[in-house]
Amino acid sequence: MRVHDTEVIDTFAEAFPMWGARIVVTAETPTWAEHAARSLTGFATSVIGCKCEAGVERVLDASDTPDGRPGVTALLFATDKDGLAKRLVERVGQTVLTCPTTACFNGLESDTEADVGGQLRYFADGWQASKVLGGRRFWRIPVMEGEFLVEERFGIVEGVGGGNIIILADDLATALRSAEAAAEAMRAVEGAIMPFPGGIARSGSKVGSRYKAVIASTNHVLCPTLRAQVDDSQVPDGVNSVFEIVIDGLAPEPVAEAMRVGLEAAARTGAMRITAGNYGGRLGPHHFHLKDLVP
């Protein structure tokens, strides 16, 4: 298969179930909303070492937020419901509550919920106050600057983690340009995030290692510098740089759409080959076949 001048391998990205939440952060100015969102989603590239995966979903106009102020939505994913609930309380408490002028709201309707504001209210040391509006409870927590408003319960849903495309190019500059174009296109897809820095991972990993204590290690078959040293290299001659983009979504559909627009953008900007990472179906039940994404 070819898109523009790029070869697209007939393979699939293998993804796995995760639990996800949408967090709405508002503040007095867009700058402070973005400060809170960056802190909220920091150190959250992979559940392998970070306990969760998170990223900024989109920037909101004041007309689109619950309190009529500038805002940002972020998505947070973990491998199980309890883990997601813990990460929500930790991250909202440590990064949004502490950030000047912010408020925090649930951005996802679901029958399954996590108690967030109901846990954070104890920081108020008995001075907290609550109010129910439209059937939703909010907590007001006094802080030195004024007060922090946080919704009590956040909806959580079964999502998808680990969708991906892998971009191969003849040199670093071309590979980076293609990966940047792909990540930029993916950011327009609502309900999906790319948790790695700038949406791009240079250190794609495989399951397992020759070292027993290491659960994941460098994906040696896609390392150009190891091409002549391994028998199973997947790096063809002429390729000298490889990037991976990992996608998490609140459902399979936004993951597939992010992969589709990212693939097209990478092909349009000089990628030599595009493939995807899988483990023969052993990692997870969600399989995104590249042939289904090619026009």
Describe the protein in words.
This protein has 295 residues and is of the alpha+beta class. Helix content is 23%, strand content 35%. The protein has a 15-stranded mixed sheet that branches. It is elongated.
Count of extended strands:
17
Taken as a percent bin, the fraction of beta residues is: 25-35%
Task: Give the overall silhouette.
Answer: elongated
Biggest sheet overview: 15 strands, mixed
Q: What class, by secondary structure content?
A: alpha+beta
Multimeric state of these chains? single chain
Radius of gyration: 21 Å
Query: Average pLDDT value?
Result: 97
Q: Regions with pLDDT < 50 over 5+ consecutive residues?
A: none
Percentage of residues in helical conformation: 10-25%
**Gap between N and C termini:** 10 Å
The succession of helices and strands, N to C, reads EEEHHEEHEEHEEEEHEEEEHEE
**How many alpha or pi helices?**
6
What's the structural blueprint in terms of helices and strands?
Layout: E1 2-3, E2 6-8, E3 12-26, H1 30-40, H2 47-50, E4 53-60, E5 71-78, H3 81-96, E6 103-106, E7 113-115, H4 117-120, E8 129-133, E9 136-143, E10 146-151, E11 153-169, H5 172-186, E12 192-193, E13 205-207, E14 216-218, E15 241-249, H6 252-268, E16 273-275, E17 286-289
Parallel strand pairs: 2-16, 6-10
Antiparallel strand pairs: 1-2, 3-5, 3-6, 3-11, 3-17, 4-5, 7-11, 8-9, 9-10, 11-15, 11-16, 12-15, 13-14
Helix pairs in contact: 1-3, 5-6
